[in-house]
Amino acid sequence: MKLATLIAFSLVTQADLSLGQRLVSFSLPDGTAQIQADVYGHGERAVILAHGGRFNKESWKKQAEILANSGFLTLAIRFRGDKFNADGSPSAEGSTDDNAADVLAAVSYLRGIGAKSISAVGASLGGDAVGEANARSAPGTFARSVFLGSDGGDEPEKLTGRKLFIVAREDRNGSRLPGIEAHYVRAREPKKLVILDGAAHAQVLFETDEGPRLLKEILRFLAEP
Fold first, then answer.
1. Quick check: bond before 190 cis, omega within 30?
2. What is the pLDDT along the chain (225 residues), one digit of tens a residue?
3. Any idea what the CATH number is for the domain that residue 207 is in?
């Protein structure tokens, strides 16, 4: 193999490894819990991924890799209350307050490794946690927040930064849409509401025909100036 080819192969391999999944852990400010997370990519623009109640941090792998390849330092977190059911399926059993504190611990971790701008994508239960974390933090903590199948928590008026609400029109037979629309109306600008076709809830949408559009909407929102 020619030297130039070997160098090119080495550079590609190193680039791929640098974007790959790395397991990290960090403590809450009061030291009461250790939070684990998967890190993908590098850079000063960071995105926290907060999973839904029947998912875990590993469920974000495909989306996290795409975000990393788009230039985002991506952190998929494990909530302290995450457990496994008897059948091996994941279950997030922590309170909204604890989950929000875990998201804020992730913010501190990302600041500590050089992130200058931090956004968050929360799905269902994770969206509630992101909303609570946003509402209780200082303006500027979150540049952008995505609420996927979530109304963004109990205090949408306190949400800061840019906000994107995404939900399927028939999520839980259409019962989730009115509540999300109501919280969207109460939230301050800048904000956007996207209603997708179908009935899939939150992260399940990625596995439907609307998956490519969902990912495109999220990427556009995170990257737009």
1. yes
2. 333 332 232 233 333 445 679 999 999 988 888 999 999 999 999 999 999 999 999 999 999 999 999 999 999 999 999 999 999 999 999 999 999 999 999 999 999 999 999 999 999 999 999 999 999 999 999 999 999 999 999 999 999 999 999 999 999 999 999 999 999 999 999 999 999 999 999 999 999 999 999 999 999 999 998
3. 3.40.50.1820
DSSP E strand boundaries for 124-161: 144-148
Range of the domain at 194: 22-223
Comparing CA positions, the residue from 186, 130, 182, 138 lying closest to residue 160 is: 138
The sheet with strand 162-168 has its strands ordered as 22-27, 34-40, 73-77, 45-50, 117-123, 144-148, 162-168, 191-196
| 201/52 Cα distance (integer angstroms) | 10
Is position 3 within any domain? no
- Dihedral of alpha carbons 63, 99, 138, 153, sign: positive
Cβ distance 49 to 76 under 8 Å? yes
- What are the tokens at 103? 């998201």
Please give the tally of structural domains in the chain. 1
* Structure token digits, residue 211: 């998956």
- The pTM score is 0.91
Q: Is residue 11 part of a domain?
A: no
Residue 50 forms part of a structural domain: yes
- Other Cβ atoms less than 10 A from the Cβ of 145: the count is 28
Count, residues in the chain: 225
CA nearest to 74, candidates 185, 218, 224, 186: 218
